[in-house]
Design a protein that fits this description.
Number of domains: 1
Structural class: mainly alpha
Number of helices: 10
Oligomer: single chain
Mean pLDDT: 86
Distance between the termini: 25 Å
Order of helices and strands: HHHHEEHHHHHH
Number of strands: 2
Amino acid sequence: MGSGRYRWSMDRSIAETGSSPGAERGVVAAARIRSLDRAWSVFIRCGSPRVLVGGLGLAVTVRAIAAVTGAAPLSRWDAAALAVVAALVPFVEWAVHRLVLHARPRTFRGVRIDPGLGHREHHRHPASIDWVLLRSADAVAFQVINAAVAAAVVGLPLALTGRPPLGPALTGVVMTMAALAHYEWSHFLFHTAVRPRSARYRRLKANHRRHHHRDERAWLGITSDLADRVLGTLPAPPGSRNLD
C-alpha cells in the first residue's frame, strides 16, 4: 500500500460501493448513518459487535462469580490491573494497526501470509460496513489473544512475587474485552456521518479521517492518540482543513 493521499473519498466510496452485496440484512453504507440511535441499531445487529459484547459479558460474569464465591476477592490489585491494561491499550492498538493491519503480504514456504488484506479493502472502501467492522471470526481471535496477553501481563508478575494472581488477571481480561468493544464501536462511529458530542472524540474522528485520506502511516490511534503522540505519528499539518 502506498502512503499519502487516497484517491478514494468518502463520498465517492458511497456512490461506488453503497451497501456491498455480502452485507448483512439491514446494513447500509456507514457514511449514510446520521444519528447516534441509527448507528447503534445498525452496529448491534452486526456479527463482531455481538461477539465482543458477548465476550465482555462472559468476562464480567466470571469475574463477579470469582469475587462473590471468595475464589478471587476484589483487592487493590484489581485497580492496579485496570490501570496497567488501560495504560497499555493505546500502544497495543497502535502496534496492531501499524504492524499487523498495515503489514505487507509475505510468502512463507510457498504460503501467502497477508494479515492486512481486509484492512487494505477497508482503506479502498471506507464507507462499506463490511470492511469497517471485524469479521466475527477475527473478533473471536482478537478476544482470545488479548485476554491471554492481559492475563499474562497482570497475573505473571503477581504470581512471581507470591501474590494471588487469579482475581487481578480476570479483571485485566475484563478491561481488555471492554477496550476491544470500545475500539470496534469508536471505529464504526468514526465512519458514519454522526458528529461526536465530545471534543475528544471529534478530534479522534478527524485524526482517523486524516489517516485514511492523507497518510496511512500516521494518525494510527482510534480510541486514543497517546501512542501517536509518544511515537511521533501525530503530525499537525499547518493550515489543514477541519475534517470532523
